Amino acid sequence: MALAVAALAVFAAGLGILAPTAAYAAEGCKVDYKVSAQWGGGFTGDVKITNLGTAVSSWSLVWTFPNGQRVTNAWNATTTNSGDTVTAKNMSYNGSIPTNGSVSFGFNGSWSGANGVPASFSLNGAVCTGVPTNPTTSPTDGPTTTPPPTGGVSAMETVAAMQPGWNLGNSLDAVGADETAWGNPRITQSLIQNVAAQGYNSIRIPVTWDNHQSKSAPYTVDTAYLDRVEEVVDWALDADLYVLINIHHDSWIWMADMNTNRTVVEARYESIWTALAARFRDAPPELLFESVNEPQFNNVDDATAYALLDDLNTSFHEIVRASGGGNADRVLVLPTLHTNADQGRLDALSDTIAALDDPNIAATIHYYGFWPFSVNIAGYTKFNDEVKADLEGYFDRAYNEFVANGIPVLIGEYGLLGFDAHTGTVEQGEKLKFFEYAGYYARQKNITLQLWDNGQHFDRTAFQWKDPELYTMMKAAWTTRSGTASSDQVYVARTATVADVSLTLNLNGTTFQGLRVGTTNLVQGTDYTISGSTLTIKASRLTTLLGDRSYGVRGSVQAVFSQGAPWRISVISYDQPTMSAATGASATFAIPTQFKGDQLATMEAKYADGTPAGPQNWTSYKEFARAFSPDYTAGTVALPTAFWSEVNDNQKVTLTFHFWSGKTVTYYVTESGGNVTGSLT
C-alpha cells in the first residue's frame, strides 16, 4: 500500500544537523514520502522535495526511520545511514532547487516488523513544515518576488521515471508494406493498455520510414503513415506511458551510405525529423525523440563515422529545438555509434553532447549480453563470472561517462541475441540469472532498461507472457534481487538408485525461506537440508517427485527466498541419449535422436586433425539454433545449410554433442556434393 507524508512536526533535536549556509534553504520546504512498493523484508521509497524558501545550489535531506528501516541503495541521490537516521544528498546534476521547484529521488530499503513513515524531514538544516516563506528582500536591489513554479522535470528524472520499459519491436519498424510485414498483428489500443498493465512505465516505438517516404526531393513523409504513428503514440500516452519514437532500420537501409551519398541522406533524414517535429510539436513532455537507431556507416574508419554521426545528431537537435512548442525542451535521446558502450563510442558522443550544451539530452546504448553467452557459442552455456564481468564493465562505462556527469542513460534495447533464433538458445536457468543480474546492476547504476520484444515474449493478441517465469524474474528485478542456484535442473538416471542431490544457492542478499512443491511447504530435515548456501534435496523427496520415472521432467520444487522471485528446480528422469545413422541432402539433413529425457547444451565440430569445422571456425563449439537445432518432439538434431556451407567437401567431421545431464554422444558426418552421410563410427 502506498503511504504519504508531507513535511510534518518539528524535527527531533540532537541529530547534529549542520547550520544553514548560503547554499541552504530558508525555512520553508515540503517533502512527499511514498512507499511505492513493498515485499517481505524490502521496499521502495520515493521522495519529492519541494523548496518553498530561497533557491539552493545543493541540498541535504535528513530523516529518522521509526522502525529501524535501512536504505540499501538509492538513485538520484547519495545516502548514508547512521543508526536510524538517513542523510540523502544531491548528485552533481540535481543540486539546484529554485524557489517553488522540486527534485525527486528514490531508494530501496529493508524493514522488519513494521514500515512506518518518518515523522519529520529537515532540508539543509531547516525543518520542513510545508509552509512557504518569501526570499529575503535586499535593501539595495529592492524587493524580490517569489518566482513562479518551474514545473520542469530534469532529463535525469524523466529517464528514471521511464524504468522499466518495453519495445514494440518488428511492427512499425518492419521493412515492408505495413506494420504486419514481419509477421506481427496490427497494433491495437488493447495491446498498449495491456503492456502498461504489466507494470511498464515506458514504451519504445521503433519506426522505419523508408517505404513511407518519397525517394526524390523533397523526400516527403507519407501523411497516412505519420497519422498511424501518431495514433499509436496517443494510445501510449493515454495509457500513462512515457513514449520514445525514432528513425529505426533506415540506419542500415539507406543512412549507412552517408559517406558517399551525403546530400541525399541528410535531406531524407532532415525531412523526416522536420515532419515529426511539426506533428508532435505540442505533445506532452512524456514523448521523447531518439535521433536514430544503431547508427552505422559503410566503408569508413571510426573517426569518419563519429563525424558523420555527430552531423546527424546535431542536425536532429537543431530541427527539433527550432520547431518550438514542447520541442523547445523535450528530452532528446542520442545514440553512440552502433549504440554500444565501447569507450571510444562513449567519448565521441560525450563530445557531441558537450558541444550542444543542452540539459535535456539523454544518451542511449543497447545491451544484448556477452556475445558468446547470448548466442550460446564457444562453450559459453552458463552465466559465469566472465559473462557477469562483461555486463558490469558495460554498465560501468556508461555510468562513468554519462550518469556520473548528469547525463541520463537509456538502454533502449536489452535482451539476449540468441532470442532472434530461438528463446531456448540459452538454457532457462542461465537465462533467468542473466535477467536477474541485469535488472539489479542497472538499478545500481541508475540506468533505465527497455526490453527488446519483437513478439517473442508478450503475446500481442492473447496478452499473455510466453515465458511467465522470465517475466516474473524481470519484474522482481525492477525493485529487488532474487535468489538463484547453481542449476535449475536435477538429473536422475532412470535406472539408478536415487540419492540425495545438492545445489549451491546464490542468495544475492536474500535469505533462504524454504522449499515447496506447488503451495505445499516441504519439511526441513525430512525433505531437504540447508547448510550455509548448500541446499540438499533428500532422496525420499526426489523419489516421490520422479513417480514412475518415465523420461523427462517429472516434477519440480521451488526454493523460496525472503524477497524476489522463487527459483524452480526441475527433477528430470533420463538415460544416455542415443543417435542413429542417417543419409540425406545437406539442405534437410537431421540426425535421428532419442533424447531419453535429456536436453542438448551445445555441439562441437572438428576435423580429423582436431581443428574446428563449420562456421565460426575459431571455436569447435558451434552456435546453438544456427549451426545445429534440436527438435525434442520430432526426435532429431538438424544440421542446416548454415553449417554445411562452411564444411569442407568429402572431409569427415566429428561431432560431439554435450547434454545438460553431463552425457555426451559422438557422431560422424561427411558431406559430398550436397549429400550427407552420418554414422556412429
- Sum up the overall morphology in one term: globular
Mean pLDDT: 91
Strand content: 25-35%
Spatial ordering of strands, largest sheet? 11-12-13-14-15-16-17-18
Structural class: alpha+beta
Strand count, sense and closure of the main sheet? 8 strands, parallel, barrel
How many helix segments? 13
End-to-end separation in angstroms reads 66 Å
Give the strand tally. Answer: 36
Q: Percent range for helical residues?
A: 10-25%
Compute the gyration radius: what is it?
A: 29 Å
Give start-end ranges of low-pLDDT stretches: 1-26, 133-151
Description:
This is cellulase. It catalyses: Endohydrolysis of (1->4)-beta-D-glucosidic linkages in cellulose, lichenin and cereal beta-D-glucans. With 681 residues, the protein is an alpha+beta fold. Helix content is 22%, strand content 28%. The chain has 13 helices and 36 strands. Strand 15 (332-335), helix 7 (343-356) and strand 16 (361-367) form a beta-alpha-beta unit.
